[in-house]
What we know:
The chain has helices at residues 2-24, 37-59, 64-69, 72-97, 101-121, 129-149, 154-173, 177-202, 212-219, 221-236, 241-247, 250-262, 269-312. It is an all-alpha fold.
Amino acid sequence: METEKNEGRAGLLYGIGAYGMWGLVPLFWPLLKPAGAIEILAHRMVWSLVFVGIALLALRRWSWIPELARSPRKLALIALAAAVITVNWGLYIWSVNTGHVVEASLGYFINPLVTIALGVLVLKERLRPAQWAAVGVGLTAVVVLAVGAGRPPWISLTLAFSFAAYGLVKKKVNIGGLESLAAETAVQFLPALGYLVWLGTRGTLAFGHHGAGHTALLAATGIVTAAPLVCFGAAAIRVPLSTLGLLQYLAPTFQFLLGVVYFHEEMPAERWAGFSLVWLALTILTWDALRTARRSRAAVEAARDEAARTETAPPASVTSAP
Length: 322
């Protein structure tokens, strides 16, 4: 029992660490200027593979590679995942470095709603009434934000849909987080390295031209990418999914607060109204998830108690036929 408590506590800390790092990452990307968003993205791809390769080498986790290489379907899915997360990473870096932190945070707030919508459209999942209500409120929020801004919140929607699609593809690949990141960055590595070499030939490469500190920060993009993923993997095996579901709101909450308080981005009334509707939708979604988890747990416990009573009950007497 004590061991389980310690594991649960450790898992909670790992989860807070993972989502905390994802939430505070808007503080990191501006440090990499004057490198442009695409150069930062390319460094992220290259150095992530280096960092993850070292981690896998230290852990001696290579057995998944031959199995993956023998599966053309999984290789195609990995390539698709790499393409989708490239869009997500690149747009997020650009958003932060051009003053759109709040709109980027909205993308990760509405991501659970988009994930549910993809589950219905792609996996033909059936929604509970509360989930339908949450999706409806979320759609209303997008309309309010679009009308208020005079344009659709395309940054938020692109981030939300790309990350939801990424999660869907990873679900179908079904390999570990560290291994999946290694495979995806292996796909990204050569194009990213080629782009950096091309920038170097043009004399526009920022890497190595703005001091040792800036160079080290660009190389650290690999650690910034992989470290929260490692913490997330450690949390996922130690705490219930319902707990992870609640922790996932930490990241966009931190991002939103940074956008408003630290970066001083504007929050007109229509934006507050849209965000309030999104938060209402997430409240409905969380309440429904917790209620469903509680009912499932109660049903499992009732079945276990019934099985225990059946095992301990005295055998029925048998009478012979006359």
